[in-house]
């Protein structure tokens, strides 16, 4: 039932992911997302990318608890969290602008994806939360992308108060969302308008702009790998195992 699908029409490539558990992200989906984003970046027909998920309530629930609880050692832990690193780095290095469609709640790794997008358009229902500390780890891998977008003060507030939802207006004020709309229809209309405009813009100019926007992040391949190792170690703790099982029970 889980999938990643890609379609290209008139220069606009739409990458859509789905998981029955509130669009959570197991390793397989992370791997496919990173691949599709990289491929779209090299695809001559693609001028702009829309990244979206299915449903109308949750954009992304973050890491898959089912996979987190099955991690047995540090190598497995690093491999799992490296999946988030690969997606963020694929978004960072992709020479095409990525528009994120944030139709609903956004948790953990989902916030990282929204932050790594070049332009995020959301609805008022798109509340955000960095819940990692609540399960005994921290937003180590997504942290650089989130901090880059909203600044260190707002990032630290999100990371420390891990059980607190921030509403979409907070996210817009801090710069995570470029636009917030009253409903999905208005959001999609704005996404279509921007994507169409960008699909007719100069690809070379957009590629150079993207380099400018992401200047100073050239070390992220190594940085996010190191951060994945930290999360991979912490997720093995007794605290994390117990917390994740509690979250799974609630779900």
Notes on the protein architecture:
This protein has 11 helices and 9 strands. It is α/β, with parallel strands linked by helices. The protein has one domain: 2-enoyl-CoA Hydratase, Chain A, domain 1 (Alpha-Beta Complex), CATH 3.90.226. The protein has a 6-stranded mixed sheet with strand order 1-2-3-5-7-9, with helices on both faces. A 3-stranded parallel sheet has the order 4-6-8. Helix 3 (74-93) packs parallel to helix 4 (109-116) and helix 4 crosses helix 5. The longest helix is centred in the first third of the chain and has 20 residues, at 74-93. The model has no long low-confidence stretch (mean pLDDT 97).
Provide keyphrases for this structure.
single chain, 251 residues, alpha/beta, 2-enoyl-CoA Hydratase, Chain A, domain 1, six-stranded mixed β-sheet, three-stranded parallel β-sheet, 11 helices
- Which parts are unreliable, with pLDDT below 50 for 5 consecutive residues or more? none
The CATH top-level class label? Alpha Beta
Radius of gyration: 17 Å
If helices are DSSP runs of H or I spanning 4 or more residues, what is the number of helices? 11
Strand arrangement, major sheet: 1-2-3-5-7-9
Number of domains: 1
The shape, in one word, is globular
Residues in β-strands, percent: 15-25%
Helix and strand composition category? alpha/beta
Largest sheet report = 6 strands, mixed
**Helical content (DSSP H or I, runs of 4+):** 40-55%
Distance between the termini: 18 Å
Briefly note the CATH topology name: 2-enoyl-CoA Hydratase, Chain A, domain 1
Q: Helix-strand pattern, N to C?
A: EEHEEHHEEHEEHHHEHHHH
Q: On the 0-100 scale, what is the average pLDDT? A: 97
Q: What is the CATH-assigned architecture?
A: Alpha-Beta Complex
Number of DSSP strand runs: 9
Q: Mind telling me the CATH superfamily name?
A: 2-enoyl-CoA Hydratase, Chain A, domain 1
């Amino acid at each position: 039932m889980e999938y990643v699908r890609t379609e290209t029409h008139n220069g606009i490539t739409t990458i859509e992911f789905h998981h029955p558990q509130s669009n959570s992200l197991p390793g397989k989906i992370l791997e496919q997302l990173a691949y599709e984003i990289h491929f779209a970046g090299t695809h001559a027909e693609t001028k702009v990318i829309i990244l979206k998920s299915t449903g109308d309530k949750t954009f992304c629930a973050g890491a898959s608890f089912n996979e987190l609880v099955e991690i047995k050692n540090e190598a497995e832990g690093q491999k799992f969290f490296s999946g988030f690193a690969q997606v963020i780095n694929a978004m960072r290095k992709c020479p095409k602008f990525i528009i994120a469609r944030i139709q609903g709640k956004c948790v953990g790794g989902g916030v990282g994806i929204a932050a790594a997008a070049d332009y995020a358009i959301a609805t008022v229902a798109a509340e955000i939360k960095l819940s990692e500390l609540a399960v005994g780890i921290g937003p180590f891998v997504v942290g650089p992308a989130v901090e880059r977008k909203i600044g260190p003060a707002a990032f630290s507030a999100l990371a420390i108060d891990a059980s607190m939802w921030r509403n979409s207006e907070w996210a817009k004020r801090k710069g995570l969302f470029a636009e917030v709309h009253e409903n999905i229809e208005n959001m999609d209309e704005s996404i279509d308008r921007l994507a169409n405009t960008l699909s007719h813009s100069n690809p070379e100019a957009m590629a150079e702009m993207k380099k400018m926007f992401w200047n100073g992040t050239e070390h992220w391949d190594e940085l996010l790998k190191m951060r994945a190792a930290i999360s991979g170690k912490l997720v093995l703790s007794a605290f994390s195992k117990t917390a994740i099982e509690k979250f799974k029970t609630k779900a």
